[in-house]
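Q: What structure does this chain adopt?
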Amino acid sequence: MTKNKKLALLAATCLSAASPGAAHASEIKIGLLDTEISTSLDDRPNLSIILGPKAPDRPGYHRASYPIADAMISHGDLMVHGIIDGVDRTLGSGGAIMIFHANPFLEKDGSGGKLAVDWRAAHEALSWYHENGVKVVVTSFVNEKTAATEHFMKTAEELGLQIITSTGNKRADFAPWPASHHAAISVAGTNKGLRVNYDSVLEGIVDLVIDGEPAINFSRTGFGKKDATSSSYATARAGGMIAALVCTFDLEGREEIMEVLHGHTEPRQFGKFTYDFLDFDALSPGVWAAYQMAVKLGDGGGGLSPGM
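A:
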């Protein structure tokens, strides 16, 4: 299919108000690079979660699960829900989704949530995604630029993997990686008042900004409004949306993906691009109350952390 035909087909499909009759690929494949998943989500039809490379335990560290406050949900679970939400909002619910989950993250014992990356496991995950025909990989973890993060992005680019990643929601003295790499598509939420164009470090590197409206709308349940939204969740939902477009319309490469996104989003007062926002109430109020508390508590002392 030529590029023009892809764009014409895409334009003919209602993406922001998807219905069960919308176009579907036979299956939507997406890679998730995140902490452990603790729920099976058996109630979601046509969902497969395939487990891949994991960081091995080592002295002083254990494989990261990153539970969210007192809720029976992990950060990995949150990301799974966001991916599903993004796919369903783009194509309509019920389509087949395959999430390839890898966990290269380690948590330092007694650190209160400080994470490290096992880079061998991370590179094994990239190869595993490529071997399984995955083209889009989402992660919400944020670090500063290092030789290891640069090599990771170089490998992903060479393998043809599109990395969807969070800019985080905390202002920092460094440009967040991998979000600021030229090959990444980066996502910002509205947590804790971050506005991308308020922060000179982030200006110019955010291509898809989940901003202007809350990534999750708590107003119906009384949990709060924009300050309670999640950039991790926004990243996962954007990843699901992009994977749905890539798999359904056979998009190739970052340039083509961004052209499609630019054509089907609206400018807002803050940030550059956004897409249709709807209330999300698929999870219980208790879960979101606990998650809001986790957001208020912060990331547990710095270092590599989710983009919450």
